[in-house]
TrEMBL record:
Keyword tags: Methyltransferase, S-adenosyl-L-methionine, Transferase, tRNA processing
Function text: Catalyzes the formation of N(7)-methylguanine at position 46 (m7G46) in tRNA.
Lineage: Bacteria, Pseudomonadati, Pseudomonadota, Gammaproteobacteria, Moraxellales
HAMAP family: tRNA_methyltr_TrmB
Gene that encodes the chain: trmB
PANTHER family linked: 3-DEOXY-D-MANNO-OCTULOSONIC-ACID TRANSFERASE/TRNA GUANINE-N 7 - -METHYLTRANSFERASE (PTHR23417), PENTACOTRIPEPTIDE-REPEAT REGION OF PRORP DOMAIN-CONTAINING PROTEIN (PTHR23417:SF14)
EC number, as in UniProt: 2.1.1.33
Naturally occurring in which organism (per UniProt): Moraxella caviae
CDD domains with a match to the protein in the record: AdoMet_MTases
Residues annotated as binding S-adenosyl-L-methionine: E96, E121, D148, D170
The protein, known as: tRNA (guanine-N(7)-)-methyltransferase
Pathway assigned to this chain's UniProt record: tRNA modification; N(7)-methylguanine-tRNA biosynthesis
A Pfam family hit: Methyltransf_4
GO MF, one annotated term: tRNA (guanine(46)-N7)-methyltransferase activity
Family (UniProt): Belongs to the class I-like SAM-binding methyltransferase superfamily. TrmB family.
């Protein structure tokens, strides 16, 4: 991984300039994916969770063809998916984008039983694994979606979500890939629209350039206020467990940065 890292200019002026260049071509953003589907081994439990109807309650768009990006076009309301659960549909709702293998999301759902959580991923072994474990744990406040978070957000109603969390998103380190970063003014405008007023966008990254980039994008959006004050990172909150990618980064000696914004 280290091999393809560039050493970018992390001065705030240079980062601002890169963001401004992006914003000149907003029409491109609908076509550009923020992910690259990885092919990795899928174990038997993951495959079972993706294919057996026993797990259908855990994967909102369960039953799609393996190997294909999940279809989210019919998902227009996440709250309704919890109507038959003990929390019901009006409990505070968190959407996690790109939960990877799911360990930190499972832990958060266990630690906050009064909230409902939905995780969306494109990585099938992770979706299957997380759904298998959620079923084993008997969690009723956590569900998963297989698919592209941007396509999902486009279909959801305004003011639908209480929290959107994005932990260690793909950093897209090369300049020519910056447009793939999840945090861009255009994609964050969509996130802001789907958040309720007072709702929280929380992100973390271990790539310094992306951390400063997130601050610049979000500090300039009138829809958001920085919970820690303009220009400041947020100390890592206790409720955010370490993620798999974060642990890997720490093994390489990297730090991590959290940003937290409230929709105004
Ligand atoms: C670097 S990994 C981090 C995974 C996990 N959050 C962690 O910290 O261990 C980023 C994840 O985001 C997912 N992802 C990127 N863009 C996405 C999108 N538009 N919709 C759903 N998942 C996405 C990727 O598939 C990948 O698994």
């Amino acid at each position: 991984m280290g091999g393809d890292r560039q050493t970018p200019d992390v001065s705030r002026a240079a980062i601002k300039d890169d963001i401004d260049k992006l914003s000149k071509t907003p029409e491109q953003f609908r076509q550009i994916q923020t992910f690259m589907k990885r092919r990795t081994h899928m174990n038997a439990n993951s495959e079972l969770a993706l294919t057996s109807s026993e797990f259908a309650a855990y994967i909102i768009n369960h039953g799609g063809e393996l190997g294909k990006l999940g279809d989210v076009s019919q998902i227009r309301d996440l709250r309704q998916c919890f109507a038959d659960t003990p929390n019901g549909s009006s409990a505070p709702l968190t959407l996690e984008i790109g939960f990877g293998m799911g360990d930190s999301l499972l832990e958060m759902a266990q630690n906050a039983p009064e909230r409902n959580f939905v995780g969306i991923e494109v990585h099938e072994p992770g979706i299957g694994r997380a759904a298998f474990l959620a079923h084993e744990l008997g969690l009723t406040n956590l569900k998963f979606i297989n698919g592209d978070a941007i396509a999902l957000l486009e279909n959801l109603p305004a003011n639908h979500l209480d929290t959107v969390q994005l932990y260690f998103p793909d950093p897209w380190q090369k300049k020519r890939h910056y447009k793939r970063r999840f945090v861009t003014p255009e994609r964050m405008a969509l996130v802001a629209e789907r958040l309720a007023v007072g709702g929280i966008f929380h992100a973390a990254t271990d790539w310094e350039h992306y951390a400063l980039w997130m601050l610049d994008v979000l500090d300039h959006m009138p829809q958001f206020e920085n919970v820690s004050g303009q220009g400041n990172f947020t100390p890592r909150p206790d409720f955010r467990p370490q993620t798999k990618f974060e642990k890997r980064g720490m093994d390489y000696g990297r730090s991590s940065w959290d940003v937290m914004y409230r929709k105004v």
